[in-house]
Amino acid sequence: MSPDDCKRLVAAIVEFLENELKRDGVTPDMAESIDVARQCLYMAYATTPEDVPSTQKKLIDIFVEACPAPPPAKELNDEEKAVAEKFKQEGNGHMREERYEEAISCYDKAIAVDSCNAVYYCNRAAAHTGRQKFDLSLRDCKKALEIDPQYSKAYSRMGLTYSKMEIYDEAIKCYEKALELDPNNEGYKKNMEIAQEKQKTQAPAGMPGMPSGMPGMPPGMGGIGNFLNNPMFMNMAKQVMENPQMQQMAMNLMGGLGGPPPGSDAGSSSQSVESGSGEAAANAAQPPQFSDIMQMGQQFAQQISETNPELVEQLRQQVQNSNTSNNTDSSDQPQS
């Protein structure tokens, strides 16, 4: 693409964004974000809508012509609706027995027959949550809300998923939205209270972007507090940290935090910096990288798993049982 063509394209995008700012239905938050995008493009490319040739089609017209809207979903007859419902009921039966893979297969078949039923997506989200496929669960909840924005159970199920991921601020937002749509639902209220309490007791992250769980541990294991409160885990962790390789990694990590590694001689460290090269001194002062912390966490988790896989599985079950007991409302069950 030539520079002139690139500039015309960006100018057309800026023109589209400016028209969006005038469109009815644009919220103040949307308008602010659109204006930021418009200004960024203007600053990066030094172009304005005036750079769009008068003979050029509007960007939105080009898009609609090249990508026409999909045809509306056909109206299902009673027989087709009955087939979809049969698949859904079979999926619900599998869910009661915690056969999540089979349930997902049934909900897939229901969606293949009726792709515009929000309940089918929401029920499949519950099955994905049972498999700890939280990203797929959130995707199905959002699809259900695209179909029916007033579907309170989809918001509640999204809240449950975020709670299992220990992202309590997002969980609370979802429960609040669910309660806006169904103010008298006691289950939604109870689950929001649980999320609020857990948010208060959740340990703050050590650094931005640090996951709340143990780095390298399998999904569904919860936050680090679940481990620190378990005597068997702490005893096993002590044994692992007696491994010379893990000790060396810990010493290197502590050295990067600005002080001498544990067990080292501060005097000799100072002497080595003075006699060493400037590059070595600079490297010694570098703070640890997040990748270093993650690597240590992953190796630690691997050794824990290899040392006592039975205990790791036991901890996983304890955390899952705790999560299950804390989710008290019927929204964690598929809708009939």
UniProtKB/TrEMBL annotation:
Protein name per UniProt: RNA polymerase II-associated protein 3-like
Q: Which gene encodes it?
A: Rpap3-001
- A GO BP annotation: post-translational protein targeting to endoplasmic reticulum membrane
Ranges for the region named Disordered are: 252-336
**Looking at the record's lineage, which domain of life comes first?**
Eukaryota
Polar residues bias (residue ranges): 296-308
Feature: compositional bias, Low complexity? 264-289, 317-336
Residues annotated as domain SGTA homodimerisation:
7-60
Organism, as annotated: Phallusia mammillata
The stretches annotated as TPR repeats are 84-117, 152-185
Family (UniProt): Belongs to the SGT family.
Asked whether the keyword Repeat is assigned, the reply is yes
Q: Which UniProt keywords apply?
A: Repeat, TPR repeat
Gene Ontology terms: cellular component: membrane; TRC complex
Q: Which GO terms fall under molecular function for this chain's record?
A: molecular adaptor activity
| InterPro entries, per the entry | SGT (IPR047150), SGTA_dimer (IPR032374), TPR-like_helical_dom_sf (IPR011990), TPR_rpt (IPR019734)
